[in-house]
Amino acid sequence: MSPARTRFAGAALGAGTLLLTACSGTSGTSSASHDSINYALPANFTPNWILPIGTAAHLNTNNISIANTLWEPLIAYDGSTGKIAWNKAGSVATAADFAADNKSVRITLGDRHWSDGKPITSRDVQFWYDLIKANKAQWAGYNPGKAPDNWTSFKAEDDRHFTITFDKAYNPQWMLANELNSITPLPQHVWDKGGDPKQVWTFLNNAAKNIAGYQKDALWKTISGPYAVKSFSTSGKVVLTANKKYDGGEKPGIPTVNLLPFTTADAEKNALRSGSVDYGYIEATDLDQKGSFTGQGYTVKPWSGWAITYMPYNFNNPAMGAVFKQLYARQAIQHSIDQTSLAKVVLNGTAVPGYGPIPQGQASDFLSPVQKDNPYPFSTSTARKLLTDHGWSEQGGVMTCTEPAKCGEGVAKGTKFEMQVLSQSGSTVTDNMMSAIQSAFAKTGIKFSIKTAPVNSVLSQTPQCTSGQSICKWQLSFFGTAGSWYFNAFPTGDSLFQSKGGSNFGNYSDPAVDKLISASTTSSSNQAIQDYSAALAKDLPVIWLPEPVYQISVMKNGLGGFSQDSLANFHPAQWKWTS
Hints:
With about 575 residues, the protein is α+β, with helices and mostly antiparallel strands. It is built from 18 helices and 25 strands. The two termini are about 35 Å apart. A hairpin with a 2-residue loop joins strand 6 and strand 7 (about 160-165).
């Protein structure tokens, strides 16, 4: 599952003199020998997790990409080949045969081996399966009723064949792209310490918390992917080295891959200008400088993605949760978001407005007319009227509830419409967007204050919570303009917007929406997901925002042989120096 690109911003990272810190250990020169490549990680998106099982505090796309490079997925369903599909070259499985009734699937494994020479078998897949079954509540990919709940049995036929049975019939494409693709065969013979899956889970997660130990811990040496970890710094720099024992279909073309963290986009741009980054990025505000980069031997190419961008509400916040639960209040907020101007001015035309839960940057059959047509166009006068019609009046420049009977259940008299967002630090574009939104809210009479922190901190400080918990003081969170939610191929909302979904940060819950989400995973018709699209475009579980491209890539001429994955993962084994 990709959170927000958590390029935060999820898939993904800090300021000032950090360029030195971020790039410590590098030579500061480009990879002219073609034996290595310097890849710039998104600003303030420090990799911090090696275990190929995500938890809520580690939803960073960089983590996912690195883990998939070390331990290949059972089924790599991604956009790395230029279209979203099953990339069999980067998968352990070679076939997935669904039963005629779509209630089970028989998987065939390739003739593959771990880096220590042991064969990859059905037992390694079952090891993952048992871990997830026993510890599903701690798995970030868990959504009640979905995997592993809807997988009723795992039956190994032999070392290279097994069958997973489901609780009912499912759309094979959805099952393949959104559930089976989450499985990663794990080295059971090395990682299974004692056999009890709960104890093993604790052991593995505790080991994964020790970032400084990644380089030497024997646990992380037995791999199946094209690269191994050579070093992994707590400051975020990761060095990968080609796995000489790799016997899969994506042979690494570059021996050494340096993944470089940056605390600000400006620091990364300075590294580009100095030539010490081979594959980096610029912000939308820098497009007028495109010529200066192409003149230095770079190619500038937008990396578009299959994603949505939004700010989650915390519906359980003790101060503002009751206000957020009022649909009219959310409508007033959405009417105050000038998406067209944000996309055109702040994001320099590199974004498209997004009005609901289905990506709108790419054409699809999933988008409803309701979402496409924008049910809440920008109008601060409309927003103000919604509030005054429901018992609010402006006092000292801020809307205040003066008629609680109209304000809604739980909204006390004297409540001020004041919201605070915890937003990604280190990005000028993100800062500009938050400032523009703040100005628009002021015209509506909503006070909007902005607090910033590195993306990983935003993720850890804005978790799912109950109103009585001290961690539940957050009201809104924003993972940055590079922090969009990147979907699997089928843009279902089970993780984001289904009740108790694993990445439903603000605890949004609507039984009718739950039914629509469930229907979208079983029906072969697109009507179900279009109904879901329409419902959430109207009900506003979050603040919808423009969807920017994942990044505007700046690549050294001669680097090629790959497509930029629209699911926002990077695939080092596909990178090649062609000249």
